[in-house]
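Researcher: For the record, we're logging two predictions in this thread. I'll number them. Prediction 1 follows.
Model: Prediction 1, sequence and structure:
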Amino acid sequence: MLRKKTNGVARRPQRTSILSEVAGKSVDRRAFLRGSGLAIGGLAAIGAMGGTVTKASAATAAQGAVQTLKSVCTHCSVGCTVVAEVQNGVWTGQEPGWDSPFNLGAHCAKGASVREHAHGERRLKYPMKKENGEWKRISWEQAINEIGDGMMQIREESGPDSVYWLGSAKHNNEQAYLFRKFAAYWGTNNVDHQARICHSTTVAGVANTWGYGAMTNSYNDIHNSQAIFIIGGNPAEAHPVSLLHVLKAKEQNNAPLIVCDPRFTRTAAHADEFVRFRPGSDVALVWGILWHIFENGWEDKEFIRTRVWGMDQIKEEVAKWTPEEVERVTGAPGSQLERVARTLANNRPGTVIWCMGGTQHTNGNNNTRAYCILQLALGNMGVSGGGTNIFRGHDNVQGATDLGVLSHTLPGYYGLAAGSWAHWSRVWGEDPEWLAARFDKITGKDGKEKSLQNLSGIPVSRWIDGVLEDTENMDQPNKVRAMVLWGHAPNSQTRMTEMKTAMEKLDMLVVVDPFPTVSAVLHDRTDGCYLLPATTQFETYGSVTASNRSIQWREKVIDPLFESKTDHEIIGLFSKKFGFHDRMFRNIQLEADGITPNIEDTTREFNRGMWTVGYTGQSPERLKLHMANQHTFDRTTLKALGGPADGDYYGMPWPCWGTPEMRHPGTPNLYDMSKSVADGGLTFRARFGVERDGENLLAEGVYSKDSEIQDGYPEFTMQMLMDLGWDGDLTADERAAIEKVAGSADKVPGVNWKTDLSGGIQRVAIAHGCAPFGNAKARTVVWTFPDPVPLHREPLYTNRRDLVADYPTYEDRHAYRLPTLYASIQKNDFSKDYPIILTSGRLVEYEGGGDETRSNPWLAELQQDMFIEVNPRDANNLGVRDGEQVWVEGPEGGKVKVMAMVTERVGEGVAFMPFHFGGHFQGEDQRSKYPDGADPYVLGESTNTAQTYGYDSVTQMQETKATLCKIMPA
């Protein structure tokens, strides 16, 4: 994946050697940007400084004093601290955060190059619109007015759901929260972000197993693992700094590293055991491992008896997966899986790690639940060194998910039920009837009128169908007519040929981003397309949530570049235009411009509402204290040893219960009963009732340390406090707040730990050693899902026609307002014309859709070509040689022209393409369609042009890891 671009001869130093002299001469920021950005590797920087480098005097040295500011890398979810060196408002240098317990003084290639944000000339510099086929510069005032007028006209004609608000994992927590609130005030649930297409199946699968849909432990806690099992993940490239923690366990504990993947990845190169298996057969593989565990009695029987429900039904399914059948379906030999099972059984606690290789499937929710069940069978949950460590992709995809930038829920996973809207209306101080009136209504098939306020919106994976589908097949009155892509790379989505059509059918396309993205060039629109320059996160400040649930506070490094604006200012401008600014920000302080909401006050507002996941105790003040005292936190436990944050866990990983005044330390490892809840311990959440088919769903005789209820118990309500006689522990203010939420005396008993705005119920429960959400068993059978017990199902586009009869996909169904196809696609045999399995993944040099990283010269130099990995046997049979151009075509007709990389990384019959490229479309170079000077250095075809239809049965996750293709010499 890295190709040598130069010979071994030393060259002149890179730009940093020139730019480091800035302190010696007074240079304004604009001149610095011009000089450092416009001629990469050349002498422009010297020219900007008058052509010479002069000796610094005492006076100029004083003027050039270096200010150091802490931010967090804006790429993956490890949460690496970036220490920025700023002189006269110019970002002149950076160091990794040596005090950070996450990156420990390390950076990957992407993190090391983030300073390019401060002077990247490929950025969007000012608002633009396309007019008669040409990009035209416009003012912010004109942009907001034209876009706003057009959207309000669409709203009047077709309803609020005809405008789709697509948010971003690149927003900080405050911006993400405001974005979801903004969509609610506009009157739509047609709002979503990248989590839908990366880990939505994780969130759904894991949350429905034991209560919360997030990483259970942490990168640092892997130090305690005795075994490490990675499936569908390549952290060496996707999360490089995380490998520090993985390799520490491998070396320190002699922990065996097992990697299961269709490709021999850079992560697999570190493995003690590499299991190559067929893409799309994860459930079969895990059941194959469990077959050996159950056959030999290696499961943790006492853990299962006391803390797990439904394992007998799992055993019935697993019994079908003999070594012979597993090898037939997955290709993995039974003897190897027996060795894997024995290794996991003999090295406990072990951790399971997965990424998008496991999630991006039509049965992705089955995969993630199977991974969880493996850990439950081994008793590896709720223990240091164990857990399911889910590595998220973007810097704040965890936070944006938690803050509700999703089409099926409000912030904090409250859902869309009437009670959920009532809760957030109370937090916002809003009239719930006014809010409800903002939403459209439809008449259901039962003839009853339904409000779209309570109906999940269209997910981002399906927005193109919101444009193209016939309205009679949709659960909303009209099609999507305006699309807002706010911090989103469209080339990260499948079916790009249809996406091009959808973009061209829209009345209006709006891109809000620091870069123009593929959204600017994919289509052939001549008008009705707007580009609004947003800042990066280094030009603003606020909180961001790492994959391990820790929240960190970024400082602003530099002021907004060019004419870019922060996302929360742009939200303020649109809410002003739409007439609900005063209502939306009634409880949030505004900046001096009277438009922009204050970040700290926004944090405090979601602190007042997100009781479900414990985003309530992390005040801005506590978060800033942690960032300023990173050196006081233990590198493994994350606990502060003395200092002003003594006893806290770094970043107060959620749930951080109660109010900030309670000073809960955060929860480092979910479901760990060895600690008291007050010190970060936890039980499994009682989220699914207390009984099922006459069987107890609550824990059996086990409980967290110091619990006064020494058995399982349901979630806490006011009625439960009264029954226990603990309601007398509430303060007068807490009781008054509970009564206000209830609205009447007879409803007081029904107020629970999620809706009590005082935090009193949580405080009292924890004071008695109890978890506010109860103490239950994890469930291995999810009776509300299409497959209550996880099943293997063949991908829609499979070349194993012999397996379709035994393991068919679902029947076609209707979900998220749209028809979704399954069996009607799988019944067609595409394998003769498209015989090779196509999968996709990440490269170490780039991230996401790649617009930002391919616009960075330091990264662009490292990887200049889009490529496809082809096994040597396949290449020889196809007449393809290494380095040659080939066509890759998918069964839906999309095709891409890329370079062939002939390699044994992929097995015979499997091909791989990275998903970071864009700017070429089916052989056409689209560079001329970008605004002048805003085209990324490196362009290439998107793998998703050739990728196909396919969506998870629960979340509508796209399938990108198991489709078919054919490869031909170009």
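Researcher: Logged. Prediction 2.
Model: Prediction 2, sequence and structure:
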Amino acid sequence: MRYKPHQHKPLRWIALFLVGTFLQLLFYIPTPVLSQNSNSCSNITAPLTPEEQTYARGAWQYFVKNYQPATGFTNSTGGYPSGTLWDMGNYLMALNAARWLNITDQADFDTRINKFLTTLNSLKLFEDTLPNKVYNAANAQMVDYGNNPVERGLGWSALDVGRILAAFDVIRTCHPQYNDWLKGIVAKWQVARSLKDGELFGATVLPDNKTLLVQEGRLGYEEYGARGYGLWGFSAPKAISLEPFKLVEINGVQIPVDTRDFQSTNANNYVVSESYILDGIEFGLQGELADFAARVLDVQKRRYDSTGQLTAVTEDNIDQAPYFLYNTVYANGANWATITDANQPYPQFRSISTKAAFGWRYLFPDNAYAQKVFDAVNDLRSPDDSGYYAGIYEESKQPNKTLTGNTNGLILEILYYKAKGNHPLISSGSASVSTGKPSENASPATPSTQPNSPVKTPIATPADTSKPIEVAVAPIPPVNSPESSSNLKLDRPLTVIERRYAEAAWRYFQANYHSKNGLIDDRSDFKGATLWGLGDYLAGLHAARSLDIITPKEFDQRTRHLLGALIKLPLFARELPSRGYDTRSLQSIDYGGNAIAEGNGWSALDLGRMLAALYNLKTSHPEYTAAVDKIVLDWSYLRVVREGILSSATVTKEQDGRSLTRVNPETRLGYEEYAARAFQLWGFNVENSAVGGEYQTALVEGVKVPIQRHRTDTNSKVNQYTVSNPFLLYALEFGLDPQMRSLFEPIFQAQAERYRRTGTLTASATTSIDRKPYTVHSTITGKGEPWVALADNGQTVPKGRLVSTAVAFAYHALLPENKYSQELLQGTTDLYNPSAGFYEGFYETTGKTAVGFTSSTNSIILQSLLYKVMNQQPLIRPTNNMKSPWWQEVSKGNSGRGLPNIAKQQTKLISDSSGSYWISDSQKTPLVTGTTVTK
């Protein structure tokens, strides 16, 4: 890849064992040895035909011409002196095959293997733990993927370790006198560091130079890598269990697909040929893997039957940019995807893979289609006898002239497998197999001739939903000034570290972008969006452009695409956007992702979030004004604003099966006040929802913390908890007016006091996690109790409290001189994946990272960084353009859409000694707080 029960022994014997092991390692000096033939490996029961001997000698020439005599290594690709452990494993397998096929003699084998192991044993390891991901093949220095020296290294790949461990087992079996040397190398490596909770973990170096362990492997390669570990006594039961997977129908065949896709984990879940071919020729296809392999071959035949295009897909180097592609049966929701490691599509470079064609031909020797695709590539050797080319491009029909150790090494392995009578290269007693029960209806290990090969359906999981067709949405037409950038004037540029954080946060919006329709997922593990989440995206998009993280062109393209999608979203009751949408089909869904044709109501809070973001887009980028006003003028506000109060609609199911709509006032603390301020920007009179009035408080850490607005206009008690999120968003965008400051400050003070009293970092927020209950409210006070973690249903979540990354960034932006906000920031700044964005936070009790990525967290981080360089001015800026389409329609009156009564904003931006902030354009908001205390 390019990537017995415990028994207690007397302490004396343990100590003696450890000392003996240490001395063995300390004084072990490998000495060159000569091979002694192993009968099982030399037992050639099906000698190669003259044609096959030509294939084998042609493949071996690659290693002859790409040998590095100074190190004993070979180049990973023709003429390029670089290599990974996977490439080294390829070479060892090829060298062993060449020896037993009599392509090379014993003396040459011994010279090569001795030099190879001498260099391998002396390699500098990453953090003295495991081999680096890549080395210069000519001098054995640690390098990056550009072959530039890297003193520290890049990390390690667990899959590559698994590959070379499998190769080590073949060498020690076929050439047992090298066993001690290989054992010494494996003992020197800290292989156990790459195992955690029964899974394989690689290591990568983050931009801040910290090491991050990352789970590696998806269905196929994960099991293969785990078998390599098992050969040396390292158990990875979860990695070898096949789970989690689902079945996806492609060309009439049910294909097993890992449910951990790029969108949710930043790792591709591609289905390719090579992992199954390797498993077959090295370990022998067993159980469900035999069935899976047959399906993967069968679906490629089905594609040929329906299109006439010969198909043999797997990963390969190519002879032009981007130089390496995964040609897949399926990847990240797409059939027959051809992608880079970053999930970028290159369908024009899909190719027929030489190694895949060879593999299927000899793994299924009686299969007519495997023979047919093999016939297309078996003579695809370079004219100068440098080995086999990687394949043939489907579109151009021209050869992919890249020469690699992977292609030629696998060809030699495959031919050796054939010569041994199709006997696996690794004995069955050595290989670990899945403990999962084989399918009761599993078909035999041959491609099915039926329309659907039967397989036991896996248990459904939240991610295992039917995949809607992703609809395409056209962006709005180009605006007058597409090169315009934000008209904000920044007080200073980002520091180098701040820019790193901003770029990491923006990665979320790159990784979760739907290029066909312009939408962004609210969270990386769920194909859905709310209007609040899309408002987060628009706010983050503006921040990224203002901070010069993205170009004017990208900003314009994304903005026009998002506005185009907003126009197309179906409206609930033809009034307002629904509460949720599938980001692929644009159809209304509930919060569980279930399709609801008529929608499930609207949220005034979500609408407020979007209105704030759209207003700021008009102000900072006025060229989009007409397009923005067209969108909001399509909506009806008759029922969302009533008697100065914001109301939301829900749909309830009656016993008789009828669905009824109910509209009730919004009461969620902080969120109502935020949304009301946003509505005021557009001229709505929502005075009774705006911040102000009387608030009930609870005593937390000696501080009176607001828990609920006291009101007589509703009996609703929706708000059951107090968290930081809405107050921070309000402060960043609207500033802290006196009324809001009286709520904001005690919320912050209570968290700081808890830290002072207990030493527990506290950043209370609503966050998303990757397991049930999926959303956690780490409250300041909830349901009458301080510091309780609640699920959406109000149930407590034991040990579920999180320290929120977004909250930490926002508090530090707003209160940069405060010692506690500084402590928060220091505790969370490294919580990001450089390719997926910032994590939600970490658990208070364990300190473990909370796995989850959301648009909300990454948007607030971008906004916090922008706030810092704007001299702490509110992010939303005023406009003097009262002649835009919106205000013209308002001026006409009698719209029938519930537009404001007068063409005047109901809020204004002012400045005083405490700073700048937006306030209601009215004198009817007296400050009365803390009149009722609940202990």
